[in-house]
Specification:
There is one protein chain. The protein has a six-stranded parallel sheet with strand order 8-7-6-10-9-11, with helices on both faces. It has a five-stranded mixed sheet with strand order 1-3-4-5-2. Strand 9 (162-166), helix 5 and strand 10 form a beta-alpha-beta unit. The chain folds into two domains: 3-66, Hypothetical PUA domain-like, domain 1 (Ribosomal Protein L25, Chain P, Beta Barrel), CATH 2.40.240; 75-236, Alpha/beta knot (3-Layer(aba) Sandwich). Helix 2 (86-96) runs parallel beside helix 3 and helix 2 packs parallel to helix 7. The protein has helices at residues 18-27, 86-96, 119-136, 150-156, 175-178, 199-207, 222-236, and strands at residues 3-5, 12-17, 35-39, 45-53, 57-66, 75-80, 101-105, 143-144, 162-166, 187-191, 211-213. It is built from seven helices and eleven strands. By secondary structure, it is α/β, with parallel strands linked by helices. The radius of gyration is 20 Å and the shape is elongated.
């Protein structure tokens, strides 16, 4: 199904021009009478049909909302800023796994630093999750936070969120065990950068109520660990596997 992210999607007539028109016509090559799905990025999707096609715009007839699958409590990923373009990959794959928000953390051991006012980088990250949501069939687009220190990010989470911090020194409490009996509340997984979390950051997290967990003995890269944790969470919630 050809899909378009349209935040104001609703039943009725809709004129599409500009970049969205270009995407539908030049990239997806839609034609008159063809079915399209619109999604608003907040969890709602709508069936639509191309009614007319012009040189610079097209007209859609938007129908009723499409029934969506099971929705789980929110899942957030707190990702210590990794090197190079690794965060791009994390954003894409986390969206496919159904994350509700990714919050880059300016960790003490992060090599990468985002300059203040880096609007172009933030816009790129949002575009990545928009496109990933379109491709994977999700009607919801994750939030991408502005990079901030760990304590600031923790304060921005909903009060009821269970925060689980992947800690390389934790040897006993597995992620799955920490989630037992807590799958009905929002969950945030915190993953350090390449060098891991500092002891000071772990102390800050624990003081805020976070729990240290492990994924097991296998050593995972920072761009893999959070995704593995999200997969475990979504499996336990019955959405994967």
């Amino acid at each position: 199904m050809k899909r378009l992210h349209w935040p104001q999607a609703a039943p009725g007539a809709l004129r599409v021009d500009g970049a969205a028109f270009h995407h539908l016509v030049r990239v997806l090559r839609v034609g008159v009478g063809e079915a399209v799905e619109l999604f608003d990025g907040k969890g709602a999707a709508f069936s639509a049909v191309v009614e007319s096609l012009g040189a610079e715009a097209l007209e859609l007839r938007v129908g009723a909302a499409v029934a969506q699958g099971q929705r789980a409590p929110p899942a957030y990923l707190l990702q210590g800023l990794p090197k190079a373009d690794k965060l791009d990959w994390v954003l894409q794959k986390a969206t496919e796994l159904g994350v509700d928000g990714v919050f880059p953390v300016e960790a003490q051991r992060s090599v990468a630093k985002l300059p203040r006012g880096a609007d172009a980088k933030l816009a790129r990250w949002q575009k990545i999750v928009d496109e990933a949501a379109r491709q994977c069939g999700s009607a919801a687009v994750p939030t991408v936070g502005t990079p901030a220190p760990l304590d600031d990010v923790l304060r921005s989470l909903p009060p009821s969120t269970l925060v689980l911090v992947l800690d390389e020194e934790e040897q006993h409490l597995r992620l799955g065990a920490a989630l037992t009996g807590k799958l009905e509340q929002p969950v945030a997984l915190a993953v350090g950068p390449e060098g891991g979390w500092s002891r000071e950051e772990l102390a800050v997290a624990r003081a805020a109520g976070a729990v240290g967990v492990t994924l097991g003995k296998r050593i995972l890269r920072t761009e893999t660990a959070g995704l593995a944790g999200l997969a475990v969470l979504r499996h336990l919630q019955g959405l994967l596997g």
